[in-house]
């Protein structure tokens, strides 16, 4: 019976490593999730051998924490920041969510962020970033990553720097409002990570976006 329980936990944890490859997860997020699943499997084996069924369950939990390499913490502060941003962005089209690896994610669509082919921030985005900067300054232990995206119109020679410049403009706006620059990393993916069909006007508009990730490292 002990062997059967241990095997079930191992299978469940290993299967979890296949579930962490969600479409909206970055490579870092997938790696963290996979590490947790593999760690859980290893912990279940060790716990099952040493302490029976209860040991297997405990080992799986501890193994997940070790396998994640520290991972991210979803603290009360993070939950409060999420609630604040949901309130600030209500009705704007900005999506606020908690990722699978406990990061706060803001998806900012093109209609309120940047005009086509440009990286200067539109007036509609400024009050949202003002509120976002306030929440970041209230939770200074977090780090931020801003990722810019474009549609497939034009060449990579244009789109790659444009996506980086959009992320950079967002960072500079936050820094001007008191957020420490060393807390913010930027990246540009150009047209390489579409979330909609670039063959339609609506799809291209969805692909022109900025994603902001906020993370609090687990201690």
Structural features, described:
This protein has 219 residues and is α+β, with helices and mostly antiparallel strands. The chain has two domains: 2-67, no CATH class; 76-215, OmpA-like domain (60s Ribosomal Protein L30, Chain: A, 2-Layer Sandwich), CATH 3.30.1330. The chain is 54% helix and 13% strand. The chain is built from seven helices and five strands, in the order H-H-H-E-E-H-H-E-H-E-H-E. A five-stranded mixed beta sheet has the order 1-2-5-3-4. It is globular. The two termini are 36 Å apart.
Kindly list the characteristics that best describe this protein.
2 domains; 7 helices; 5 strands; five-stranded mixed β-sheet; disordered N terminus; 219 residues; alpha+beta; 60s Ribosomal Protein L30, Chain: A
Helix-strand category? alpha+beta
The name of the CATH superfamily of the largest domain reads OmpA-like domain
Would you tell me the overall average pLDDT?
79
Going by CATH, the architecture of the largest domain would be: 2-Layer Sandwich
Oligomerization state: single chain
Distance between the termini: 36 Å
Q: What is the CATH C level class of the largest domain, in words?
A: Alpha Beta
